[in-house]
Amino acid sequence: MNGSTERGAPVNTASPARQRPASDSARVTALLERGRTLATPVLRAAVDRLAPPMDTVAAYHFGWIDAEGRPSDADGGKAVRPALALVSAEAAGAAPETGVPGAVAVELVHNFSLLHDDLMDGDEQRRHRDTVWKVHGPAQAILVGDALFALANEILLELGTADAGRATRRLTAATRKLIDGQAQDISYEHRERVTVDECLEMEGNKTGALLACATSIGAVLGGADERTADALEAYGFHLGLSFQAVDDLLGVWGDPESTGKPTWSDLRQRKKSLPVVAALAAGGPAAERLADLMAADVKKTQREFEDFDETEFAARAALIEEAGGREATSGIARVQHNKALEALDGIDMPGTVRDELVALADFVVVRQR
């Protein structure tokens, strides 16, 4: 089955013709590292503005210190969004450094959403460490998240240019859509059925909108016209849907050692993610059995549900795969990946920059975390 892997193996949704050569892997590694190197000092300086203890709580969240306040080099995330913001600036003919304020602003909004999402979802682990609400309490998770969102707008508006105003409008619009998507995601957990179209709409808001912003904000800061910015935004939106589809696969079949989350993490949270929704929509005996189990799950308390053993979740994962949910989700990831690349066709940019955007798109659909 194309795109299907055992739990714990890399999730690869790319077509055989689009497998990444070693040179592309090296290119992506360099782009991600450049994003971290240029954005992290500005990000740290922004976090240092926060009043105690929020500065310390935020530093813990970003992996700069441990729970006792000692320096740490914990996993800070993939840094895809900062990398995209810097390449976005290059697509407009500007230096990558032009995109740094946009990269930092997007990263602040992204982490605002993670802090709140972890609390709302009850996630106790992120990136192999206890989440902020678990260590510092729910109140600090909420406050620090709010503070990061405010900082994101400050970082952009302090530039004092017309392009900074354009960038801020795009960021605030993306944030509103992100919040819409989170609200949809939560509401879907309490419904027996969600359509594939509803799921894609939710994921377009929750993930696509901010990645779309990341891939246009550097260009806007670099003076790009609206047509170029909109085309880059379309690339990022479809890339976001592909990214989320892969995340949904990892949420069921990902290796905890790579993802930093428990086995069957999305199933434990009763999420109506793409594999689940696609499986239920497929019909057939496996889909019917899955629907019966999930209907019974709705009637259980969260405590009863959490008391399930591994075999219960493994059985649901097997039914999702048997019904075709895994293959359908891989197919959606490939389609959205192709749409992202098609959006680049209308943009006049250096060939090397186009290659960077293609390599980053390929990275999104072939990853383990």
TrEMBL record:
GO terms for biological process: isoprenoid biosynthetic process. GO terms for molecular function: metal ion binding; prenyltransferase activity. Keywords: Magnesium, Metal-binding, Transferase. The keyword tRNA-binding does not apply. Residues 1-25 are annotated as: Disordered. Pfam families: polyprenyl_synt (PF00348). The keyword rRNA processing does not apply. InterPro entries: Isoprenoid_synthase_dom_sf, Polyprenyl_synt, Polyprenyl_synt_CS. It comes from the Bacteria. Belongs to the FPP/GGPP synthase family. This is Polyprenyl synthetase family protein.
